[in-house]
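This part of the workshop introduces the protein records we will be handling. To make this concrete, we reproduce a full record directly below.
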Amino acid sequence: MKSPAVLVVGAGIIGCTIAHELAAFGSRVQVIDARQPGQGATRASAGILAPYIEGHELTLLRSLGGRSLALYDSFIERVRTDSGRDVIYQRNGTFELAFGDADVDRLSALSGALWKEGVEARWIPPLAFDDYEPLVNAGAKGALLITPHGFVGVTSLTLASAAAAERRGARFKTETGAIRIHPMPAGRVGVQTQSSSWDADRVVLAAGSWSSQITVEGADAIPVKPIRGQLIQLAMKPGQIQRVVWGPDGYLVPWPDGSVLVGSTVEDVGFDENSTEEGVSKLRSAAARLVPSLADAPITGVRTGLRPKGPDDLPILGLSEAVPGLIYATAHYRNGVMLSPLTARLVGDLVFDRGADPALRDLTPSRHGRL
């Protein structure tokens, strides 16, 4: 059987990694987006790979994140090999600070639960901070070190995934935003833009926050809304912070060049992608609370992006009921980077009929109506 032709709508981290996955297995892939790759939610991502923090309260999200994290080493190796590009990638843990008794109780309970799951997590008392992160706030009551966690350079990963997909034969067309998806004869799927029409055997809707702006014929409105996230970048000497530092008000991601990403705001302001003085001020305060010496660190950059949030903070992932051949891969919210390897694999399973993964039952688009 001839490999399916697939049109991917969206060139963010999800769309680009899906394109690479499908092209690597022989599919003829076309990607369209109104913007250049990685210019949506990707801009607001610090690239943290921390399912056991992000998934504190959502057991399913923690399970999905753990599965995806286990794929990351081979995933990064394949992207590097296929693209010929380097990708910043470190797995040296997260260091989550506890400032109050409730934080201590929560993190202590989490540590015990993770050990039972086979995940290495250690409680670090304040007197031992110097052995791990000497610059963190000495007033904290302790910290939880979760060693499998880490981070990835999101922009470098997105662009490398796009390059890897292109090397495998995928094509990218920018300044081409989809506005309508509809069924066509012989089981094909059509995509309409402002100025052109496309069709393919399968269409993957991976347009992030802009998914809600696309009409799917015969389906309910896609329940995804944009949530603005702001990040700031601070300058310090390389190596002073070793790993991701997390706290109640934000997080720090130390890059090899010494810059520190500080995130992130969570703002329901529609499609407004502007940064704000208030947001920047809150992030600087959050950074100083975690590492006091950052109070005077110069700001070298401010980023914003729109994260695609669904009704239950879980991805909308699976086959459409309304349009046969359409696959949803959207609403990853704050977890698009973490879930990229697993999402690409699940979409590949659907495109190539490799068998439905049990996770798709929990992520099915139909849980939000006729999609």
In short: Residues 91-149+225-309 form a domain with the D-Amino Acid Oxidase; Chain A, domain 2 fold (CATH 3.30.9.10).
